[in-house]
Amino acid sequence: MAKLWQTKSTKLHPLVERYTVGNDYILDTRLLPFDIQASKAHAAALVKAKILTPAEQKKLNKALNEILALHNQGKFVIKQSDEDCHTAIENYLVAKLGDLGKKIHTCRSRNDQVLVATRLYTRKKLKQVSFELIKMQNVFLKMAKKYEFLPLPGYTHTRRAMPSSIGHWAASYLEELINDHMLLETAYHLNDQNPMGAAAGFGVNIDLDRDLTTKLLGFERVQVNSLYAVNSRGTTESYILSVLTKIMMTLGRLANEMIWFTTPEYNFFFLPPEFTTGSSIMPQKRNPDIFEIVRGNVNVIVALQTQVKDTSKNLISGYNRDTQLTKEPLIKGLGIARRSLEVCALVMSRIKPNRQTLMKSLSPEFFAVHEANRLVKEGMPFRDAYQHVKENIHKLKVQNPVKAIKEVRSLGGPGNLQLNKYRISKPL
């Protein structure tokens, strides 16, 4: 089968072919259903432009459905010689329909084909990330409500600081995840614009109805400038990966805390054995590998983001083959973020605070600020109260931790959880 750009007088050296194609033909198994969806929309636009007849469109759609069915059965193979799914699809259409199959590429370039298929794929995957992110929000909201007053030591500089609670800690993650979803929404809207019709970046001299294809493909809006549509490949992926990095940073902090908080030394939480692994030499070991992998994947996402940014920067306007190398990082990043959210939500929904340990965890020094503020309420200037407590820190006694936490929560400041004010994000 021929490449879309190949003529009878050209033959690509096999080593050059392997190097330039890379693993794109493998990655494109994910994009193929979306290129078929886009091809159907493009055929409809060609009918309106009187390039195709309705009868020809019907034949093309039937053949495209055949490809999709074969793909779903694992029987449609994209070969390295095809380079990508777009060529494989067109070669099938030509073999099946002859000259009619050759018409589908009218007013198209692989540039805007890749763009639209990637946008459709990414839109689906961002919705999946949204779903998992909202599940995680609900886990932390439930935890915050259930353990609002259960004590948890608060730390600054990784040293003992002030009394906190499981509820306060959980609500902090809830609020951060809500903000993370706001960022995800911006990435979704940036991605949700239709580049079809941009062709190679300079438009075409046939009147294609871009509003029609936008409606058929369910895009929010048309990406107006054809050159920018092509230039945006890589920059859109870069922004999406930046948002995924922020989500993974939230999970990374959570993972790091849970690694420490579930150790016998802290023993703040019980990690069920089904979420741990064992040692090949030490019979007693149960390891928090799941959190270690999440923590490690933060670095993977950061690297993928950097890869895309560095690949996309300083390119001249118009298509550059460099941007082919942004496809794999995007696909990997979307997968890592979704799976990390899924597994974290599962583990955090089953993890249990060790109430007995937590009730005993607040040693006297945690209440230094409380004691200083008590003296302030009696009329002593704060700096004098601070100095008095500092000089008499050894005399502090353990207060009732639950009472101390409830006292803070009863006030209107940031220590009050105000859980009724949180609004779980709406799915994309």
**Number of separate domains:** 2
Uncertain residue ranges? none
* Count of helical regions: 16
- Write down the overall mean pLDDT: 92
The proportion of strand residues reads under 5%
By CATH, the superfamily of the largest domain comes out as: Fumarase/aspartase (Central domain)
Order of helices and strands: HHHHHHEEHEHEHHEHHEHHHH
Major sheet attributes: 2 strands, antiparallel
Helix content: 55-70%
Q: Which fold name fills CATH's third level, the topology of the largest domain?
A: Fumarase C, Chain A, domain 2
CATH class of the largest domain: Mainly Alpha
The coarse silhouette is elongated
Q: Supply Rg.
A: 29 Å
Total number of beta strands: 6
Q: What is the straight-line distance between the termini? A: 40 Å
CATH architecture of the largest domain: Up-down Bundle
Which structural category fits the helices and strands?
A: mainly alpha
Strand order of the largest sheet: 1-2
Overview of this structure, please?
- This protein is mostly helical and 428 residues long.
- It has two domains: 93 residues, Orthogonal Bundle (Fumarase C, Chain B, domain 1); 250 residues, Up-down Bundle (Fumarase C, Chain A, domain 2), CATH 1.20.200.
- The chain is 60% helix and 5% strand.
- The longest helix has 37 residues.
- The radius of gyration is 29 Å and the shape is elongated.
- The protein starts with 13 loop residues before the first helix and ends in a 19-residue tail after the last helix.
In short:
By secondary structure, this protein is mostly helical. The chain has helices at residues 14-21, 24-48, 54-72, 85-97, 99-103, 110-146, 166-191, 210-217, 226-231, 235-261, 289-312, 327-350, 355-360, 368-377, 382-391, 401-409; strands at residues 151-156, 159-165, 193-194, 221-222, 269-270, 352-353. The chain folds into two domains: 14-106, Fumarase C, Chain B, domain 1, CATH 1.10.275; 111-360, Fumarase C, Chain A, domain 2 (Up-down Bundle), CATH 1.20.200.10.
